[in-house]
């Protein structure tokens, strides 16, 4: 059965005290779109930019700093402008007159990352956290678009648009609904998808390698980033003591240079993580949940909290282009659990970089061990809704040279001895075959 897309307009009951949050969200969303449009539209002096990836690479960091929007809404604002730019270029190619796209109509684009859709209400991301809004439903929705599509379990929510009617001071959600197949087809599709679910785990670190994947790739250099930041801080401190305008301008220039360097390093790391995921046919990438990372690392590690969050965002929006899902899992016990036998004990972590299981004597790099546990946590979550009797075989972790099923059994595709290796140095030589 072919997909059927329907758009349903439903009025929202927005709490009075939260209306301004939605208006501010709209203002900042349109700022992202208009800033992108101004950057991308270069006619008639040059070719217009119609690549979403190029636009995001050039503008994402700036717009994240300039707004209070979530990463997903910034991304959607950029993409809205690029789509409009593409349409403009198509008109130019046909010889039609057109100009730089401008966005002033009240609208914000939401998908399942920035909104949680329910049959009777929706939770929307704003500049001030989430706001829950009930739908204003008719007394008898039968034979109406709301009853036929919005309340129909045979239809699922897709990317939708929030709009505002100034004449009535009312918010409306234009919900896009896609028809799903019947239950038998749903089961078949779920089973087929499950057979191809492969998870890449990523462990983030404040020293050593910035990121270590469950495929054994050691990515980036957190020590180098720390060193560069300390050098910047020393120079800044010396200049601040002079208290001259020249010193102030030099400090601003240094701050910009430092920021660009760090962002470039994070982009490089995110690209390598995506390369690992693509090379191993991964459908999912798992990170630790970073919500409480500042508390866990202490006040002196705030830079790392920012860097980890930004790295996650880079991977998230780039992965979407490849159809790879990015998720976060609880970090609890990922550094203490043996990824081979499952035995969990704080004594398993012999040193900062060495993990030796006290039960099965499995020995390997501690960060690599943690990355496999992170992958396994998401693996279990994905498997929880399946009914297969194969004990988890349909889902697998992306590992160095084989796969790890839900029972914790490792199956090497080439040589199982590489699993026991322990290395403290970042290296690409251990990446799987």
UniProtKB/TrEMBL annotation:
Key word DNA-binding present: yes
Every Cas12f1-like TNB domain range: 308-374
A GO MF label: DNA binding
Keyword Lipid metabolism applies: no
Protein name, per record: Transposase, IS605 OrfB family protein
Keywords: DNA-binding
InterPro entries attached to this UniProt entry: Cas12f1-like_TNB (IPR010095), RNA-guided_DNA_endo/Transpos (IPR051399)
């Amino acid at each position: 059965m072919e997909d059927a897309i329907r758009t349903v307009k439903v009025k929202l009951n927005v709490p009075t005290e939260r209306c301004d949050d939605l208006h501010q969200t709209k203002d900042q969303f349109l700022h992202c779109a208009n800033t992108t449009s101004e950057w991308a539209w270069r006619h008639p002096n040059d070719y217009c930019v119609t690549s979403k990836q190029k636009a995001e690479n050039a503008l994402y960091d700036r717009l994240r700093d300039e707004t209070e929007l979530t990463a997903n809404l910034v991304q959607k604002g950029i993409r809205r402008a690029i789509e409009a730019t593409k349409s403009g270029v198509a008109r130019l190619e046909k010889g039609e007159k057109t100009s730089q796209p401008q966005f002033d109509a009240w609208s914000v684009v939401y998908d399942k990352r920035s909104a949680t859709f329910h049959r009777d209400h929706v939770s929307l991301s704003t500049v001030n956290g989430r706001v829950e809004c009930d739908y204003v439903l008719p007394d008898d929705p039968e034979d109406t678009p709301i009853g036929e599509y919005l309340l129909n379990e045979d239809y699922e929510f897709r990317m939708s648009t929030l709009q505002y009617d100034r004449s009535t001071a009312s918010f409306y959600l234009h919900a896009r609904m896609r028809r799903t197949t019947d239950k038998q087809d749903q089961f078949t599709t779920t089973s087929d998808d499950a057979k191809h679910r492969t998870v890449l785990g990523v462990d983030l670190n404040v020293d050593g390698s910035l990121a270590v994947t469950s495929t054994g790739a050691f990515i980036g250099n957190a020590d180098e980033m720390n060193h560069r930041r300390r050098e910047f801080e020393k120079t800044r401190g010396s200049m601040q003591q002079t208290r001259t305008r020249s010193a102030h301008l030099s400090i601003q220039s240094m701050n910009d240079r430092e920021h660009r360097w760090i962002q470039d390093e994070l982009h490089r790391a995110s690209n390598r993580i995506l390369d690992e995921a693509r090379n191993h046919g991964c459908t999912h990438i798992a990170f630790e949940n970073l919500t409480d990372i500042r508390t866990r690392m202490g006040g002196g590690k705030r830079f790392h909290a920012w860097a980890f969050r930004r790295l996650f965002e880079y991977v998230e929006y780039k992965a979407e282009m490849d159809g790879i899902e990015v998720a976060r899992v609880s970090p609890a016990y990922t550094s203490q659990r043996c990824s081979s036998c499952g035995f969990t004990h704080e004594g398993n972590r012999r040193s900062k970089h060495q993990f030796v299981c006290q039960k099965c004597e499995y020995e390997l790099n501690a960060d690599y061990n943690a990355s496999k546990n992170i992958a396994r946590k998401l693996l279990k979550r994905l498997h929880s809704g399946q009914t297969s009797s194969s004990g988890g075989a349909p889902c697998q972790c992306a590992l160095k040279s084989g796969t790890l099923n839900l029972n914790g059994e490792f199956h090497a595709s080439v040589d199982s001895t590489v699993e026991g290796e322990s290395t403290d140095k970042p290296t690409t030589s251990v990446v799987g075959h």
